Amino acid sequence: MIIEEQINQLREELRQHNYNYYVLDTPVISDYDFDIKLKELQRLEENYPEYYDPNSPTLRVGGAVTKNFETVIHDHRMYSLDNSYSKEDLLDWEKRIKKMVDGEVSYTCELKYDGASISLTYEEGLLVRAVTRGDGIQGDDVTTNIKTIKSVPLKLKGNFPAKFDIRGEIVLPYEGFAKMNSERIAAGEEPYMNPRNTASGSLKLQDSSEVAKRPLDCLLYNITGDRLGISTQFESLKMARAWGFKVPTESKQVNSIDEVLAYVTYWDSHRHNLPYETDGVVIKVNNIQQQEELGFTAKAPRWAMAYKFKAEQVFTHLYKITYQVGRTGAITPVANLEPVLLAGTTVKRASLHNADQIAKLDIREGDTVFVEKGGEIIPKIIGVDFQKRNQDSQPTQYITQCPECSAQLIRKEGEAQHYCPNYKGCPPQIIGRIQHYISRKAMDIEGLGGETVALLVNEKLIINYADLYELKKEEVIPLERMAEKSADNLIMGIEKSKEIPFERVLFALGIRYVGETVAKKLAKHYKTIDAIINATEEELVNVDEIGITIAQSVKEFFASEENRKLIYRLKNYGVQLEVSADKLANQTDTLKGQTFVVSGVFEKVSRNELKKMIEDNAGKVSSSISSKTSFVIAGANMGPSKLDKANKLAIPIISEDDFLAKIAQK
Ligand code: AMP
Ligand code: ZN
After folding, report:
1. How far does residue 406's CA lie from ligand 2's centre (Å)?
2. pLDDT of 380-408, one tens digit each?
3. Distance, CA 559 to ligand 2 centroid (Å)?
4. 31-47 vs 3-18: helix axis angle to the nearest 10?
5. Segment (H or E) for 336
6. pLDDT band, very low/low/confident/very high, at 251 (cuts 50, 70, 90)
7. Given ligand 1 and candidates 77, 78, 80, 81, which is best to mutate, with the most ligand atoms within 8 Å of its CB?
8. 77, 298, 330, 574: least buried by Cβ within 10 Å?
9. 386 to 337, 358, 366: CA distances (angstroms)
10. Whole-prediction pTM value?
């Protein structure tokens, strides 16, 4: 098969699998097989740049960085929607409509997805542009970022118009949002407040590979264009679905306002089962010709109306404001409430976020407060009933000392949160760090749970994670809820943690901003803890994907005498503080200073293995040939353009065997 055909076929296949997975939610091949195919396509595209396609599935991983998003004027203005809150509002709207159009009116009811709106332009079935709503007249071109969202089709199927815009909402489903937050918390970072803001913030990230990592979704609801020959809104949704777009199937065609209300009532109570946030229902006149007759006001279409779900709200009593201290020392004020039923759950506590929030709401102990569960998953306090406030109530004085250790709190310039700086002596910080150390993604110590850690600390048996390795069975047995067997398990679990690979140990140390991914990067690059300790800030920043904040935090961590002592002890107990000998055995300096370009298909080892071998032996891998290239390792089907270039620059071309022989010499 000729290469071009092979490339096109792979692109087609991958597109279909993407569609099955992200739009239909019914994958037909394993993730592993998908990856193999994707890698194969990447390899071909790399070797045959002449077949570049801006809409290739390989571009989903992002990589392009945008410094300034270009402003684009919308071909068709992006309007807002009028809101209604009652049956009367809807009946008034119906009356206005019926005065302006002839004949029966039917409606399409859709859910109102709560995210960031986007306009996608397709020409000849290809995504050519994605623009944010902006002020409705012009928005920002965020095409590179949008292309990384897997449910946005880059190429359409079926019988689509030559040119049209389609509008939709970029949302961040709950599940992915929760996952992102648990990763942030594990890395000692502040969690995001709500999915909507996180989704809309994602669109303007400069690094598209960051966007690619976020589990965003795109839900479409409106086709716009000239003379598209579509007769109803409901039908247009079906068509969009057939072209490959993700169009939720909850929409419904109805014939009366009563039916609209039944739809609203149903979804008001069932929306919590949907995978993403919704904040209402959008009702649209179904017939497109009637829509055209109705037209637009200055701000919104006359043919559509939003009906906002009421955020569920209740009044309750604020007993007391308490303050929590996290493992990084961050202070969070918490409202302790008289228990009250809200959106199906009993609410007893709500976060007050920080000192500014308390001041803004002028909230005080003893107040009657308004609690709401709207978009946010966590209930929030939105206001105070000042009428009910006690005469002698006093403004809340935010604490100045840590509630747990009495240290003077600090607040860094530009940060909303107060911190307890008593890193060494503050119990929740001490306990939190050890809990993080033993957690599943870190050292995964079986037989030891968070509560036991607190118990061990409170009983003064341990004060840091290194102390775990000195614990004796006899010390543990007398603890509450401990027995011979559980004590054995605990000691065994701790012993086993000595086998946990370096990268996870590095994550377990609890360095702020060093999450799982960063830990992996650092471990791979430096290989030993000592190398990381000795690295300068500039060196750290030069490691792929390590920014200044992370570099500073790493330096700060190891600058502490205390922390270096801990590391020293861990090392002595046998915890893995360097990449294992097995892995290192294959590593040499043989190829130091040499740059390789790998091209073609190999017999004995895969392309990725080859690259790894080069890196393990201190060589560099580059994707394109230049005068700096030392060798080209050529397999079967090496790209003709590469061959040409290598010859022109007189770069030695070696075979797989030559290369293997080269590193065998070590
Ligand atoms: P608002 O921002 O409250 O003026 O509401 C208008 C916005 O609702 C539009 O800009 C869309 O982004 C969004 N929206 C969400 N779901 C839909 C839908 N099914 N139909 C139309 N607009 C929707
Ligand atoms: Zn403290």
Report:
1. 6
2. 898 999 999 988 899 999 999 999 999 99
3. 21
4. 150
5. strand 331-342
6. very high
7. 81
8. 298
9. 17, 14, 11
10. 0.64
